[in-house]
Amino acid sequence: MGAKLFGFVLFCLCVSASTSNTIEDGFQLTTRAFTEYLNTGVRPGYFSYALSQCPLPNILRGHTDVKAAIGDSQVCYLCSQIVDLFILKRRLGMTDVEMAKEASDICITLKIENERVCDGIINANLGIFMYIIDNNADLKNTSVCGLILTNYNCDSGNAYEWTVEVPSGKTVDKVKANGTNTFNILHISDIHYDPLYTPGKSSQCGEPLCCQDDQPDGTDDSNTCGYWSDYSDADTPFHTMQEALRESGTHEFDYVYYTGDFVSHRVWSTSVENNTRDIIAVTDQFKAYYNVPVYPVLGNHEPHPLNVWSSDGVDDATLSTQWVFDLVAEQWGEWLTEDAKKTLLKGGYYTVSPRKGFRIVALNSNVCYTVNWWLVNDSEDPHDQLAWLAEVLLDAEKNSESVHLLMHIPTGSSECLSSWSREFRKILRRFSNTITGHFSGHTHRDLLWVYYDDDEQAVGVSWNGASVTPFSNSNPSYKLYQIDGETFDVLDFEEWTFNLTLANLNPTRDVDWYKLYSFKEAYGVGSMEPSEVDKLLTRMAEDHSLIQKYYNYKFRNSDVAVKNGCNTSCQKSLLCDMVTTVHGDTEKCEELKKLYDESTK
Ligand SMILES: *[C@@H]1O[C@H](CO)[C@@H](O)[C@H](O)[C@H]1NC(C)=O
Ligand SMILES: *[C@@H]1O[C@H](CO)[C@@H](O)[C@H](O)[C@H]1NC(C)=O
Ligand SMILES: *[C@@H]1O[C@H](CO)[C@@H](O)[C@H](O)[C@H]1NC(C)=O
Ligand SMILES: *[C@@H]1O[C@H](CO)[C@@H](O)[C@H](O)[C@H]1NC(C)=O
Ligand SMILES: *[C@@H]1O[C@H](CO)[C@@H](O)[C@H](O)[C@H]1NC(C)=O
Ligand SMILES: CC(=O)N[C@H]1CO[C@H](CO)[C@@H](O)[C@@H]1O
Ligand SMILES: [Zn+2]
Ligand SMILES: [Zn+2]
User: Fold this and answer.
1) 561 lines ligand 6 (CB under 6 A)
2) Could you give the CA distance from residue 117 to residue 207 in angstroms, rounded to a whole number?
3) What's the CA-to-centroid distance between 20 and ligand 5, angstroms?
């Protein structure tokens, strides 16, 4: 009764508070509703109303206006309440089914997603949450919020602090590439093969992935999924995957790098069976179209549910993700050695040396993803991967080998655990001249990162492979690198793409692939050395037409991106992202922003 009255008063306050502050009001009301629920164990009468007014979906999707309107500490506080509520309810004996119902109600009322998406994601993840609550007697809300809301700087109570041993000594002297015996490597990434892709469906479906066979039809050209795929949230149909592999296969190259994400974004209805089927389908197409070795890495979409990689020692068969490692060790077997299969089975990473003096190290960087809930259970160098990386690089250094690193999730964003990024960068700095190539995926964008050492010298460049999937707003693409045959340095690359709008207009005509650009020519650099790329970033900060060019290439000149354009704040964040390789380390970013502001070109 009292609660209802309280709710009514708040309701009136909220409505009369005018439109200027509704984001904040809805948020405050939700916080109050959870406080009351947590304190009394009963949902107050205005609970649903409060949650329906809450901008949490926008917060979760990183909308900057919401981040500005609501302080970080308030977001962290709401998170801690929700987490405490679930821990408390579980400790009081709530069953899995009841917990799922509770989570589903909150997810739907908060409008995080619709009912079937909320339920699908909750049902897939519930077992892990319950395992973690049940097996960690002193689980704290800070461990959860400090991890998943890294972006809001929530206090993690030092739950994620650890280091790995980095071998002493200095990197070897750099051998200058002179361009002898060059060869090519094809870099293809993020296919996200979608067996349910259906042309003619609505591209404005309101779910995380559109153009699905069980979604409504489009009503006109502007919202109808095209034949080859769509700029909206859509993935890659089988025939588009085949077209990309066929066409990329017409170039000459000695190896293929695939930097992860085989499975589609239908995140609410994954299963071990279907993921297995789709990973095999894509791998089979690699075997059909490429007659050279393919070196794949795992993406965050491969496990079921997506993103999660169970801690070592989790033997519950319904929760363990060991099946992913078992599957790819078998599927990728023909490209790997027995030793490579052993580490692949242990943690999803491996190394091979395809020719004398040259080594490829494929990592499973997905374990750093901050929505990998298992980090709450154990975050310290999962599967001992970084310790292994340091050892492999030390051996390579001793044997005068050059190394290419492959990984799905790049370091630097708030989505990759800071400890993992920082320790990875320490290793990278120590072996900077042994590592002559560094390639990543996951972003679906044509991007690069420059790694710096302590005294601000550029020591490495990571090249992102962009994506075959347009998800979202991009033209499908791949890259072809030219590699020095003695030092294995990257000498240049070309990026190839096609205009998705045009291709969809004439689905019966051949797809018109074209070379979008080659790096050295487009940016006028003398080489791809870290020091040269560093100088390029300075030029980009001074000459804004260069950063505009980088923006267009980022989306491979897609119509949507070109139309939206990139304003001042967009250009500055592009510059910053390129030099941020550990979340929160913004020194170089600030320097570039200052330079940008001082120039007017
Ligand atoms: C969250 O955890 C912190 C630290 O353990 C604790 O002080 C606080 O009471 C907890 N609950 C909320 C809602 O903040
Ligand atoms: C290039 O450098 C290698 C040593 O790294 C050397 O053996 C070779 O002769 C050089 N080639 C040219 C054309 O200078
Ligand atoms: C697996 O795929 C089949 C066929 O595409 C589909 O009917 C089924 O619903 C999928 N399973 C799940 C759990 O989504
Ligand atoms: C892509 O094709 C469409 C349709 O022909 C055209 O309007 C558009 O300008 C093209 N985009 C680019 C970047 O060339
Ligand atoms: C720049 O563009 C972004 C996204 O398109 C928009 O949210 C922002 O308000 C724009 N900023 C300025 C200063 O125009
Ligand atoms: C910190 C912690 O509780 N880690 C646990 C994670 O899960 C494994 C496997 O069940 C346990 O052995 C750890 O104790
Ligand atoms: Zn992806
Ligand atoms: Zn990914």
Assistant:
1) no
2) 7
3) 19
CA–CA distance, 492 with 437 (Å, rounded to integer): 11
Between CA 595 and CA 540 the distance in angstroms is 10
Q: Is the dihedral of CA 18, 23, 26, 32 positive or negative?
A: negative
- Tell how far the Cα of 273 is from the centroid of ligand 3, in angstroms: 9
Q: How far apart are CA 278 and CA 267, in angstroms?
A: 14
pLDDT tens per residue, range 314-337: 989 899 999 999 999 999 999 999
What is the average pLDDT value for the chain, to the nearest integer?
93
For residue 97, how many other CB atoms are within 10 A of its CB? Answer: 9
Angstrom CA distances, 186 to 350, 351, 358, 491, 496, stand at: 19, 18, 16, 14, 11
Task: Please report the domains of the chain, with CATH numbers, ordered by start residue.
Answer: 2-152 (no CATH), 182-197+235-599 (3.60.21.10), 198-227 (no CATH)
Q: What's the pLDDT score for residue 24?
A: 79
Cβ-contact 30, 37 below 8 angstroms: no
Rounded distance between C-alpha atoms, residue 203 and residue 197, angstroms = 11
SS3 250: coil
Residue 169: Cβ within 10 Å count: 10
pTM, entire model:
0.94
Which residue type occupies 440? S
Q: How many CB atoms lie within 10 A of CB 338?
A: 7
365 CB less than 6 Å from ligand 1?
A: no
Distance CA 366, CA 214 (A): 30
The position carrying tokens 């066409």 is 247
Give, for 139, the enclosing helix (H) or strand (E).
none
Three-class secondary structure of residue 251 per DSSP: coil
Give me the phi and psi of 150, to 5 degrees please. -50, -35
| Neighbouring residues of 423: CB distance < 8 A, sequence distance ≥ 6 | 162, 163, 164, 166, 381, 386
Is residue 181 lining ligand 2, measured as CB closer than 6 Å? no
Q: Which of 144, 171, 46, 48 is nearest to 87 (CA)?
A: 144
H or E segment at 448?
strand 448-452
What confidence tens digit (pLDDT) does each residue in 89-104 have?
Answer: 999 999 999 999 999 9
Residue closest to 425 by CA, chosen among 389, 377, 463, 397: 389
Q: Where are the alpha helices (DSSP H) in 140-297?
A: 141-148, 238-248, 272-289
Low-confidence ranges of the chain (pLDDT < 50): 1-20
Least distant ligand from the CA of 571? 5
